[in-house]
Amino acid sequence: MAITAAMVKELREKTGAGMMDCKKALTEVDGDMEKAIDLLREKGLAKAAKKSGRVAAEGLVDICMTEDGKKAAIVEVNSETDFVAKNEDFKNFVKDVATTILKSDKTTVEELLNEKYLDADATVQEALNSKIATIGENMNVRRFEKFVVDSGKVAGYIHAGGKIGVLVAMETESDSDELLTLGKDIAMQVAAMNPKYISREDVDQEYIAHETEILKQQALNEGKPAEIVEKMVVGRLNKQLKEVCLLDQPFVKNPDLTVEKLVKETASKLGTEIKVSKVVRFEVGEGIEKKEENFAEEVAKQLK
Known about the structure:
Its main location: cytoplasm. The chain is an alpha+beta fold and about 300 residues long. It has helices at about 5-15, 20-30, 35-40, 80-85, 90-105, 110-115, 125-135, 175-195, 205-220, 225-245, 260-270, 295-304; strands spanning about 60-65, 70-80, 140-150, 150-160, 165-170, 250, 255-260, 275-285. It folds into 3 domains: about 5-55 and about 290-304, Ubiquitin-associated (UBA) domain (Helicase, Ruva Protein, domain 3), CATH 1.10.8.10; about 60-190 and about 275-285, Elongation factor Ts, dimerisation domain (Tetrahydropterin Synthase, Chain A), CATH 3.30.479.20; about 200-265, no CATH class. The chain has 12 helices and 8 strands. It has a 3-stranded antiparallel beta sheet. Strand 1 and strand 2 form a beta hairpin. It is flat and about 75 Å long. Mean pLDDT is about 90; it is low at about 50-55.
């Protein structure tokens, strides 16, 4: 039986397995879709079964915070298309979910879905189901975080109309408006540069060991003498840490300053210490495998 691009596409959507693995499986079982699924599962190539091919990988990130800047919530709600993400009804729903999170003490999405939606009798899940029925697209509340500070402020930043959202918590005795300006600048930095850690103290040893080994092999593969490899690795690792640690990064608005120096200058001006204690960055759809619009054509080209 001839294996078509459409068959490969269908199997890939059902299993999440690689394109060529799907083609091999279908060839092996003479095009029997169910047997191909079983074969991929047996080989450990099938990912978690997908309920449907309708992947919700678009959507919005939104933030809600108290007026005093002591509490803030950030949420990502996904839709299938960017068109729906721009719908006012959808935008309002995401904002209302963020407001619900801010007022709630729930810590998981499952708990949140069973929480009362704003002041209505319906739960968040029921409100979500209603939106799905009205709008006609698969949607889901993917993730959220809530920051609470006793002494200090939480600042937030939304980029590109809700494609990226960032919260930054700062611990300090100051209550100055300049603190929020600093917080927003740091949040913009995080949105743009996506650091993995706040400071070098936060970097886990597994990451250090892993990167050290890679850099060591790179240097050896470049033919560098063994006696200078260690020094090279230290230098390269140091450069890498400056890229992945927020406080070590050059400040995007003024590259002559590091973010750490920016924080210290603001702290000096306000006459108190400031510690960036927590950061979260949500980017819509990150980590979700998105369907290609012309996937069948893409497969056909690959198979040829």
